Amino acid sequence: MSHDLTRVAILGASGYAGGELVRLIDQHPLMELVHIGAHSKAGQTLGSVHPNLGGGDRILGTLAPSEVPDVDVVFLALPHGASAAPAMALSERTVMLVDLGSDFRISDPARYAAAYGSQHPAPEQLGNWVYGLAELNRRNLVGAQRIAVPGCYPTSALLALGPLVTEGGIDTAGIIVDALSGVSGAGRSVKAELQFGAMSDSAHAYNLIHHRHRPEIEQGIEMVGGVDPIVTFTPHLVPMHRGILSTAYARTGLTEGELHTILLDAYTDAPFVNVIEEPPATRWVVGSNNALIAVKVDERAGCAVIVSAIDNLLKGAAGQAVQCVNIALGWDETTGLPMTGAMP
Question: Choosing a second label site near 114 at 20 to 30 A (CA), which of 210, 238, 260, 329?
């Protein structure tokens, strides 16, 4: 490959999101993947960890920043708490850092501590990373060198709610978000509750009230609306491999047609977001970087019901990360990203 291409490294390439990054970057016409690092899988071949990728003779290195060669972009696809140290070490270089983890999403140290139950190791860095929800924060992504990719649940919820908050179409006090996620959202874990025997023909809610994505959703609403929202968020794991379906409820005084128009206008120039008439299914977006959104109004209750569907590993993780880099570097944001889902 020509070294005129943007040189890329991935730390955390052995996980599901990291594997999707490898797949996307290998097919990206303007990027060259020159380093892949992992923790427990270091030293193994890429193909043995991700058989779907083949991998040839590529070997997973470690997560040590000293192993990262001279590159233009480093993607950090690491668990919570694992990105800060390599990010700080790599900050000494002239390099774009893109964190798919949760270490830099929350901009306020006090909110971070409340959300995650610990102090941030580099609180002075919070607020210096651009929140990478492209459709709602595009202007700040242009030229950005530090990008915090939103969580999968907040991506789904904020795409549904953001324009309606910005235009004052819904009441931000008492928003409820129920979200259903495929088990890949829990990562490559061997926990008993994630095994086939536990998940097949079953579904369950988890981390009620205190899920760490709730403060991130509230922060996103503040970002687009300048308001102090109250959100109740309940995530559920359901027996599917991937995808997120979020249903948000909020008080409104507008009609269904008015809310639909707000969403249509907001996403006119957003190639990955489609506003549709009827509620979407996750199957329609899996395998793509798309988001599908529909809104209905229960006029009897004065309640807007907004439903969104995304692929948690693409629009909710790796695809969104690549989309952010495309925008930051001035490329067409769709470059190298799948725009159609896979059926059945």
Answer: 238
Whether residue 152 lies in the annotated active site: yes
Task: Report how far residue 47's alpha carbon sits from residue 105's, in angstroms, rounded to the nearest whole number.
Answer: 31
Is residue 83 a contact partner of residue 103, using CB atoms and an 8 Å limit?
Answer: yes
Q: Catalytic pick from 148, 152, 292, 318? A: 152
Cβ atoms of 119 and 111 closer than 8 Å: no
| Count of domains forming the chain | 2
* Domain assignment present for 337: no
Length of the chain as a residue count: 344
160 plus 287 within the same structural domain: yes
- Cα–Cα distances in angstroms (integers) from residue 125 to residues 73, 88, 108, 235, in the given order: 18, 9, 10, 29
Residues 119 and 108 in one domain: yes
CA of 241: how far to CAs of 19, 182, 267, in Å? 15, 5, 28
CB 315 within 8 A of CB 160: no
Cβ atoms of 26 and 54 within 8 Å: the answer is no
User: Are 31 and 145 found together in one domain?
Assistant: yes
- Give the C-alpha separation, 305 to 259, whole Å: 10
Verify that 233 and 194 share a domain, yes or no: yes
pTM over 0.85: yes
Kindly give the confidence (pLDDT) of every residue in the chain, 344 residues in length, as a single tens digit, with 9 standing for 90 and above: 445 899 999 999 999 999 999 999 999 999 999 999 999 899 999 999 999 997 678 999 999 999 999 999 999 999 988 999 999 999 989 999 999 999 999 999 999 998 888 899 899 889 899 999 999 999 999 999 999 999 999 999 999 999 999 999 999 999 999 999 999 887 766 676 777 777 788 899 998 988 999 999 999 999 999 999 999 999 999 999 999 999 999 999 999 999 999 999 999 999 999 999 999 999 999 999 999 999 999 999 999 999 999 999 999 999 999 999 999 999 999 999 999 998 87
Element (H, E) at 323: helix 318-328
Enclosing domain of residue 300: 153-310
Same domain, 262 and 279: yes
State whether 112 and 28 are in the same domain: yes
Report cis status (omega within 30 of 0) of the bond before 235: no
